[in-house]
Amino acid sequence: MPDVSNAQPSTVDHRRIPLRTLVPLVALGGAVGALLRFGLGELIPEQGMKFPWTTLLVNLSGSAALGLLVGIAAVRTKTPSWVVPTLGTGLLGAYTTFSTVILVLLPSVPGAALDSLSTVTYVSPGILEAGAYLLISIIFGTMAAAAGLVTARGIFGYLGHDAERRAAGRGGTGGPS
């Protein structure tokens, strides 16, 4: 018989939430995320900027938040099943969008067919700025998500693990076992 004393407990509350309840929650999260994104765009407008700092800030902070959310959900035993879809897909999905990255880069494409559809006047970034922005978005976005996961595991993983050990009567030391 295999030893299950060190087995990881179930990390998510797997009780199914009805779709008729989950869909409005995700929509509400999406509305809040869109308003946050809109608010940051108003607070730090990108019109006239050669480098899209606001979009980069949104995408990096959203990547870190998503990593943190998924990391916490993975290590906490009682995470309700609605949390990741509502906050991850809804709120953070609306807050960060890859389509905004593409919209920001479109003016740098010479003779782009969609130039006339742009409703925002951006200063056309040069090829160096466009390439750097795309690489920064992909590389640092991935790093931010990984940092969120590691942070969640480092803080909440050990705390959750110790609480579970104490509840099971095995004690806990505050560190990895």
Automatic annotation (TrEMBL):
<keyword id="KW-0915">Sodium</keyword>
<keyword id="KW-1003">Cell membrane</keyword>
<keyword id="KW-0479">Metal-binding</keyword>
<keyword id="KW-0813">Transport</keyword>
<feature type="transmembrane region" description="Helical">
    <location>
        <begin position="52"/>
        <end position="75"/>
    </location>
</feature>
<comment type="similarity">
    <text>Belongs to the fluoride channel Fluc/FEX (TC 1.A.43) family.</text>
</comment>
<feature type="transmembrane region" description="Helical">
    <location>
        <begin position="21"/>
        <end position="40"/>
    </location>
</feature>
<dbReference type="InterPro" id="IPR003691">
    <property type="entry name" value="FluC"/>
</dbReference>
<feature type="binding site">
    <location>
        <position position="93"/>
    </location>
    <ligand>
        <name>Na(+)</name>
    </ligand>
</feature>
<feature type="transmembrane region" description="Helical">
    <location>
        <begin position="130"/>
        <end position="156"/>
    </location>
</feature>
<comment type="function">
    <text>Fluoride-specific ion channel. Important for reducing fluoride concentration in the cell, thus reducing its toxicity.</text>
</comment>
<dbReference type="Pfam" id="PF02537">
    <property type="entry name" value="CRCB"/>
</dbReference>
<keyword id="KW-0406">Ion transport</keyword>
<keyword id="KW-0472">Membrane</keyword>
<feature type="transmembrane region" description="Helical">
    <location>
        <begin position="87"/>
        <end position="110"/>
    </location>
</feature>
<keyword id="KW-1133">Transmembrane helix</keyword>
<keyword id="KW-0407">Ion channel</keyword>
<feature type="binding site">
    <location>
        <position position="96"/>
    </location>
    <ligand>
        <name>Na(+)</name>
    </ligand>
</feature>
<protein>
    <recommendedName>
        <fullName>Fluoride-specific ion channel FluC</fullName>
    </recommendedName>
</protein>
<keyword id="KW-0812">Transmembrane</keyword>
